[in-house]
Amino acid sequence: MQHCRYILLLTFLFLHLFSHVSAAPDDSLVVHFIDVGQGDSTLIEYRGQTMLIDGGRRDAGEKVVTYLKKSGIEHLDYVVASHPDADHVGGLIEVLREVEVEHVLDSGKEHTTDTYIEYLKLVEEREIPFDIVNHGETIDFAPPVEMQALNALSESEERNESSIVFKITHGEIDFLLASDATKDNEMRMVNEFDVEAEILKVGHHGSKTSTSMDFLRKVQPETAILTYGENEFGHPTRRVVSRLNRIGATIYSTYEHGDIVVTADTNSYNIETEKWYAIYDRCREASELIPSCGM
Ligand SMILES: [Zn+2]
To answer: What are the entry keywords (predicted)?
Structure first.
């Protein structure tokens, strides 16, 4: 009997050890939509590789740096300025000062503001390799995760039209990060690329300049992320929100939910948000019980 128990114990230990040895490495792609008020800032992590796309406005820089440090990130492999507007590039100044950055990717669209010039000066001072992303280019960020610029038009008249739009693919799960791309950009992307994506970072903070119904029909997003704060532009517009509802997307916003973190494996994803009250309020108004309302 004693012998039997000993064998059972050994078997248990062996299985326990084996289960640890054979456990798959963490294959999660984590995309953080950082709440920077009115603006964009998106952090992407995959197996220790890191990329920050935009940093919100200048006064959001400190929040972004704090967020990176809190997430254990002292070093960024890539920083991307999707286009030179202050609500995207401003916060990158503090990031470039405080965090070690390996590469900077830029739209190539120039701007004459002090903010944009200061960002460029810092890149030069720190001798960070600086590259311009080409339209359609594939970025070798963290294979096997695929990353393609579906829009990057440095020759555009309008700064928003120059926006770098990335599609990121991890197995079956796609993210489309629309920056401030316009409806014209959307139509061009629809004609040139497969824009289908489970998760859409809605273009231009929900402005009427973006997110046409034709585009949404091709993207077919399950989840829509709106990035905005208190603003005088009327972002997001009611029309865009109603289009997102019509397409059946679940809407999250940094304004209501704070920081939004999407963790994807190759065939599913989950979403965690800093604040839950928006969903709670929606549940109180819901006429029928929905599963997440029990939480
Ligand atoms: Zn913007």
So the answer is: Hydrolase, Signal
